[in-house]
TrEMBL record:
This is Creatininase. Its cofactor is Zn(2+). It comes from Desulfosarcina widdelii. GO terms for molecular function: hydrolase activity, acting on carbon-nitrogen (but not peptide) bonds, in linear amides; metal ion binding. Keywords: Hydrolase, Metal-binding, Zinc. InterPro entries: Creatininase-like_sf, Creatininase/forma_Hydrolase. One of its GO terms (biological process) is riboflavin biosynthetic process. Belongs to the creatininase superfamily.
Length: 273
């Protein structure tokens, strides 16, 4: 039986599933500070943990994981590895176009790092202008917030936070040996002195007069720990429930995505105003 992973297939098997119009899932993570109690590779571990549950979904295969993304704001903290945005965009385009040359036409980025979003969009927009393909993105932590914190209500924090309850629970379930329990404690970002701007996250988002806007800052002005939220209510059981819920959604999303019609060759379709 053909493996779920492209890296475990022969070239002939890869060609055959491309001819069957399989969807290629591309897991994406990061290598960055994730609080004082979690390992640097959290995002990658979680992306890989979800794709393992895709086995058995007809017409789906998994490409090699991209474990490094765009995390430039965390560079002052040891262990962070980042690509520049133009580098990451180029990597994504060359990765996907290599598979297009093999006959694949459907791609979904399973992205567990919000900092990658802009690069994924830029690369995807560039490619759909030039190729007869479909590209989608599953945003892991956004989905965890919506399904597990808001809808299911299994998260005491009530929302996703960086290195908080959701993230810590998933690592407890997937790689418990990497969690440093004695360093687990809640923390909040420092807001700007004598300012009405309330810092929300490390990406520059601030709350001001009932609206979320952007004020970019050096990460060292905001945090010493890399934690926003409270991980102390995290548990293995919650982590297992989160992974199961996200995997269930991903399977349904991919089945629906595979049924989308491919557009005509974009280079041959005239624009009509």
């Amino acid at each position: 039986m053909t493996s779920l992973y492209l890296s475990e297939m022969t070239s002939g098997e890869c060609r055959r599933i491309a001819e069957e119009d399989a969807v290629v899932v591309i897991p994406m993570g990061s290598m960055e500070l994730e609080g004082r109690h979690l390992p640097l590779g959290v995002d990658t571990f979680v992306a890989d943990g979800i794709v393992r549950h895709l086995k058995g979904v007809s017409g789906v295969c998994v490409g090699p994981t991209l474990p490094i993304g765009y995390s430039k704001w965390f560079l002052p903290f040891a262990g962070t590895i980042t690509l520049e945005t133009d580098t990451l965009i180029r990597v994504l385009i060359e990765y996907v176009e290599s598979l297009i040359s093999a006959g694949f036409r459907r791609f979904v980025f399973l992205n567990a790092h919000k900092g990658n979003n802009a690069c994924i969009e830029s690369a995807s927009r560039s490619m759909i202008d030039r190729h007869r393909i479909k590209i989608g993105m599953l945003s892991v932590w956004k989905l965890a917030h919506e399904l597990c914190a808001v809808k299911d209500g299994i998260i005491e924090e009530g929302r996703f936070t960086h290195a908080g309850e959701i993230m810590t629970s998933t690592v407890m379930a997937l790689k418990p040996e990497t969690v440093v329990d004695e360093r687990m404690r809640g923390d909040a970002p420092r807001s700007m002195q004598d300012s009405a701007f309330k810092v929300i996250n490390f990406l520059g988002e601030v709350s001001f007069k009932d609206s979320v806007q952007i004020v970019y800052q050096d990460i060292r002005e905001i945090t010493d720990s890399g934690t926003i939220g409270d991980p102390t209510s995290a548990s293995v059981e919650k982590g297992e429930a989160i992974i199961a819920r996200l995997s269930e959604y991903a399977r349904a999303f991919l089945k629906e995505f595979r049924m989308l019609s491919l557009q005509e060759d974009p280079t041959e379709v005239p624009c009509q105003a």
